[in-house]
């Protein structure tokens, strides 16, 4: 790691520490920028990652996408180029050296705008790529990130400069090692773009029965091609994808509402309460009632 990168990471750590102060996830004054601080390792957290850039200034994190493991720290950045259900766990943090990171969310429109306004050449028919990847941080990317976060000390500059710096960050990422993979979500006609539209349909109708033929039609693919490309992008089948969404939502409802497990099972789309309990136990390690009891005792 170069001395310049090391110095900028130290400054970024100080900025995140100053603007968070305590453990938690903080939505900053900069649109779509979140700051995260944790002073100890965490247990696995299940959530859907929106399209975003994640960068760690201090600490280490592990992400599981289906059976794939991504570990990244201050020398790396992680990109999720579309909505993906994942398991995240902070694996290096302490009170003396807390985990400090940021997440910058973006949309397909943001990527398309940068491509249109720059001279970056992208071929729509590139091979389908995984929608999550870890890249090695570059000084040009880190410099743009740091200038964006510095705006938190100058709030009056945020409306004008934050969109410019955000655009620059995406521009640098599109020029990097995984630029083609990132660009595919915005290139109409690419297989990744078409899978993204099917994913949006699954998320919107998560509690409805999965109709593969409808999803394949949305993606303008045969059923066999849709299955193949969907797994290439997400690392899981459409049914596995929907199952993770349903179980994550069920857990959220059980925690938020103290609702009956059978009722929640039907609300998220299960027709059988026993099947729901089996799949819930398989994903979270224990049946709904025991799992929620443990979580409430741990965090309340």
CATH superfamily of the largest domain: Jelly Rolls
Number of continuous helical runs: 12
Question: What is the domain total for the residues?
Answer: 2
- Enumerate the spans where pLDDT stays under 50 for 5 or more consecutive residues: none
Q: Identify the CATH class of the largest domain.
A: Mainly Beta
Q: Output mean pLDDT.
A: 94
- Radius of gyration equals 20 Å
Strand content: 15-25%
Question: Which structural category do the helix and sheet elements fall into?
Answer: alpha+beta
Sequence of secondary-structure elements: HEEEEEEEEEHEHHHHHHHHHH
CATH fold-type name of the largest domain: Jelly Rolls
Strand order in the sheet with the most strands: 1-2-9-4-7-10
What fraction, in percent, of the residue positions are helical? 40-55%
How far is the first residue's CA from the last residue's CA? Answer: 41 Å
How many strands in all?
10
Corresponding CATH architecture of the largest domain: Sandwich
Reported for the largest beta sheet, the result is:
6 strands, antiparallel
Global morphology: globular
Pfam families: AraC_N, HTH_18
Keywords: Transcription, Transcription regulation
InterPro entries: Homeodomain-like_sf, HTH_AraC, Tscrpt_reg_HTH_AraC_N
Protein name: AraC-like DNA-binding protein
